[in-house]
Amino acid sequence: MTERASRLALSHAASPPGVLTPAQRAALFLSRIWAWVFLAAMVLFFVVAVPLTTGGSVNFLTVRNSQNILVAIIPVLLLGLGQTFVIIAAGIDLSVGWVMSLASVLSALALRGVFNSGVPLFPSVLVGLAAGVGGAAVVGFVNGVIIAKLKVPAFIVTLGTSFIVRGVAYLMSENTTVIGLPSGIRAYGNDALIYHIGGEGGGLYFLHRPEVSGELLRRMDIILPYPVVVTAFVVAWAMFLLHKTQFGRHTYAIGGSMDAAVRSGIPVDRHIIELYMLSAATSGVAGFLSTLRYTAGSAVIGDPLLLSSIAAVIIGGVSMFGGAGTVIGTVIGALIIAVLTTGLVMLNVDAFWQFIVVGAVVIVAVLIDQSRDLIMARAGGRVRR
Question: Which of 1.10.3470, 1.20.140, 3.30.70, 1.10.3210 would CATH assign to domain 27-378?
Fold first, then answer.
C-alpha cells in the first residue's frame, strides 16, 4: 500500500461515513460564505485604496457610487436570474445575451409604433414591455422544445439559437439603433424614487425630480432608480419561485438526477420548456429596461453580457453540475463583478486587468465548489446549497 493510500484509509477510518470532522465542517461553512466574505473584503479594500490613490479627492463608499453599482448590475443580474434556474437544472443557456438584444429592438419598435398611432405614453410602454418579454419568451419556448422533446444538448441548441436571434435582431433593426421613441420614456428608465441634494439649499425629494441646475444639480444624488426597483421585484419573485414553490423543488430535483425526477412523476419535459422560457423572459425584461434607459433599441446591447452573467451565477455558488444554488448567491456574484470593475476603474487600472481578475475569481469559485462536493462525497452524503 502506498503512503497516499494509507493516509486515505486512515482518514476514512477516523471519520465514519456520513460524519464530518470539525475541519471538514469548518471548510464546508467557509465554502458557503466565501462570496459574502470576499465581497465585504473587496468593499473594504476599495474604501481604503481609492482615497489613497486619488489623494482623497474621490471616495468609493458614497451614495452616488453605490447607486451606480446597482444600475450597472441590472442587465447582468437579470440575465443571471434565469440562467440560475437553468443551470440548477443541469442545463445552460448561451442565447440570453442576444435574446436581450432582440427584446430591446422589439420593445422599441412596438413602443414607437403604438405611441405614433395616438396611444398615450404609459399604455405604449406596457405594450413595449409585452412585446419585448413576449418575443423573448418565444425564443425560450423554441429552445426548451428542442432540448426537451428532441433531446438535443442545451449547449448546441442555445448556441445555434444565439446566432439566429442575432440575425433576427439585426434584420428587425435594419442594422441600426431603433430611434424616434417618445422622449417621455426616459423618465421611466432614469428617474428614481428618491432624490437627495446635500448641503445648503438641498433636501430630500420623493417621487419627484427637483428642477435644479448648476451646483445643486451636481450635488444631487439619485437613489433607487426605477429600473433598480423593478429588478428588486424580479429578484424577490425569483427567490420565492425557486425556494418556496413546487416549481423550485422540481428544478432542484431535475438537476440532482433527471432519471430520479422522471421516476418520481415530475413532468420533466414540460418543466425544462418552462425553465428556458423563464430564462428568456428575464433577458427580455433586461432588454426592455435598457430601451427605457437609453431611449432607443439596440441590436447589440446584450452581446458582451453573456459571459458576465454566467460568471455571476458561478461565483454565487450555483453548481455547473446542477442540483445546487440560490438566487441570493447570483445577486452576490453580480455585486462582486460590479464592485470589482467599478473599484478597478476608480483606481485607474487598465480594463484588461479587470478581465483577468474576474476570470481568476470564476476559477476560484469553481475550485471551491468542487472542494465542497469532495468534502461531502468523502462524508458519504450530499447537501443542498
Answer: 1.10.3470
